Amino acid sequence: MLRYVFRRLLTAIPTLFVIVTMAFFLIRLAPGGPFNQERGLSPEIKANLEAQFGLNDPLWLQYVHYLGNLLRGNFGPSYNMPDFTVGELFREGLPISVQLGASALILALLLGSVLGTVAALNQNKLADYSVIALATAGSTIPTFVIAPVIQLLFGLTWKLLPIGGWGDGALINKIGPVLTLALPQIAIVARLMRGSMIESLRSHHIRTARALGLSDWSVVVKHALRGAILPIVSFTGPAAAALLTGSIIVETIFSIPGIGRHFVVAALNRDYTLVMGTVVVIALFTIIFNLIVDVMYAVIDPRVRYD
Amino acid sequence: MTDIAATAPVIVGRSLWGDAWARLKANRAAMFSLYYLAFIAAISVFGPWFVPHQYTTIYADYVRMPPSFSAYPKADMIEGALDEAIKRMRVDIKEWRQEGNRVFVTVRSSKPVDDRNIRYLDRSDTFDDTKIESKSPDGLEMVMSASIKQQYFLFGTDNTGRDLLSRTLMAGRISLAIGLLAGVVAVVIGVLYGATAGFAGGRVDEVMMRIVDVLYSLPFIFFVIMLVVFFGRNFVLMFLAVGAVLWLDMARIVRGQALSIRRQEYVQAAEAMGVGQRGILIRHVIPNLLGPVVIYMTLLVPQVIILESFLSFLGLGVQEPMTSWGVLISVGAQNIGSANWLLLFPAFFLVSTLFALNFVGDGLRDALDPRDR
User: Fold this and answer.
1) Major location, coarse class (chain B) (predicted)?
2) Which of B20, B52, B96, B300 could form a disulfide with B105 if both were Cys (CB 3.0 to 4.6 A apart)?
């Protein structure tokens, strides 16, 4: 197992390298530069700034410099927020995005699994149809509709939650964003769980367990769940990577100072280092969580062996 | 023998599509959704010509009016509009009264009142057909009458006083058109790419699919934003770009299908009977590919609509005064405190369309998937 993890980490390096290279040259191909705003810097200042950040060097040299800095864990300065380095921006924003994303993920996994199981156990009954309806709604309504509707209902009409803002991480400020992030995921988890649980309940070992006279609870929780949970585990990898790196929509609508909202602004302002930094962080999260998921697979399903 | 053959009842087999259509017709949710989609498409395409307001017309007198079935101006709004118009004439109102559908207003000034002043009343969104009733001998006082222009704003008006109904319908036109066009682009690229990879097999397949894997591993939103950055805010290019991003899934599905169809017994049988590559392609592979492609396309269109709305929401998509459901929802989200109808109407149109598309997609899947028979 350790050898497998080690091998996977080794193959992650070329993957990351390809992603960084592609992203680097793609953003450089885009017309314009970080100091070409309409405000119009005088040409001398612009030339100085570009010289200071090494933007006049040949592109391959800049690329080598960037890779060298990245290897030392240095993401470089942000061009459009000159008071911050990209590393500092992440240190401030990432914990916030991770907190919201992790809460949403845990909520989605718990609630989604329970709803999916309940639906599977009551197949084609009212509970089942309600869960299916909820899942359809959750996966159809886009986040940028859910978020303002939550603000409208809970914030303005019933005045239960603040409309937005981080409020130094007060619990009440997190409810809206977490709910918005979690709802579509709850829908996906519930749907996956319902399908895999129905299949799992039909399998031979469950029939055997029932024949042995085990209680319903123990059949479902101890035996059926173990087989049914596999699709949820493989869903968790990419979902965790996407949720923990922040959502542009949720952070914009609820004014949350996470890292999700940087990306669009940075790409539009050609803040090369910030765009690259975000791509690297997202890629790292994706690779790490996919690895964790594959290891979990082997732990849960004894049929999977990585040797 | 010939007699028997002639009189035997002819059993007409149902084609794959006839069979699928019959099953789709039996699915009530899918059929209702299909009618609903047709209805939304029809009102989006033809509606803007029948709504009495242009989607770009600004009614300065009616900014952020709530939706209402009765005509504007409301009784309490007439005086304000009158004050506003008379102020522009630089004269004072002496008195005014309303008789039926006309207002009569007496104005006075320290200088003789100019006859041309009546155009200020006509220019207002509230009044029309202004006439001079009488003038005092010294010219300092004048009585004018004007009819009140009745206007309906069923969905209310937006921040600049534009009719939300015509804007929502216009937005539907754009959103649906983008969904369809980008969907077609994605399907064409995906089918060509996937089918090529699936048929070529071996090395070519390997390389082509690794390229798809690499494109997959780039953060999706990065990809979209890069395309927007490259193509600028050009409307047509934008949704071609959106289509060009979404072909990856299609390519994978088609490749997998093509690979598995090639290994089916009926294809081997056809090969054994000496049917050429071309014949196998046209007779067996393409008809069997069409099912998944049609299903995926109906599921792709809502994805494209969401993506377009998402980009417009971020201000990267459709630009003012042109509009789409994403643009309207974005404006609505910024004004939920003061004018929630700006969010609710476009959101309802978008969400109900997405629901209908999903139900049709699910219905088609059930109808076309031969494994369910």
Assistant:
1) membrane
2) B96
**Is B243 near chain A, with CB under 8 Å?**
no
* Residue tagged 């031969």 (tokens): B370
Q: Give alpha helix (H) positions in chain A.
A: 2-29, 43-52, 59-71, 86-121, 126-140, 143-150, 171-201, 204-211, 216-218, 225-228, 230-244, 248-253, 262-268, 272-300
Low-confidence ranges of chain B (pLDDT < 50): 1, 5, 372-373
As a whole-number percent, the residues of chain B with pLDDT over 90 amount to: 13
- Fold of the domain built from segment(s) B18-53+157-368: MetI-like fold (1.10.3720)
Burial A5-34 (b: 16+ CB within 10 A, else e): eeeeeeebeeebeebbebbbebbeebeebb
For residues A188-198, average pLDDT: 92
Query: What pLDDT, on the 0 to 100 scale, is given for residue A161?
Result: 87
- For domain A86-300, the question of CATH label 3.40.50.1100 is answered with no
Model's pTM, two decimal places?
Answer: 0.84
For the residues A13-28, what does the mean pLDDT come to? Answer: 86
- pLDDT value for A304: 66
The average confidence (pLDDT) of chain A is: 86
- Residue ranges of domains in chain A: 86-300
CB pair distance less than 8 Å for A144 and B309: yes
| Sheet-wide strand order for B102-108 | B92-99, B102-108, B141-148, B127-135
Distance, CA of A50 to CA of B208 (rounded, Å):
39
**Is residue B218 within 8 angstroms of chain A, CB to CB?**
yes
Q: Coil, strand or helix: which one is A64?
A: helix
Classify domain B75-148 at the CATH superfamily level: General secretion pathway protein M, EpsM (3.30.1360.100)
Selected for mutation to probe chain A from B37, B215, B222 (highest A CB count within 10 Å) is B222
Instruction: Region of A168 please: left (phi>0), alpha (psi -120 to 50) or beta.
Output: left
Domain limits of chain B? 18-53+157-368, 75-148
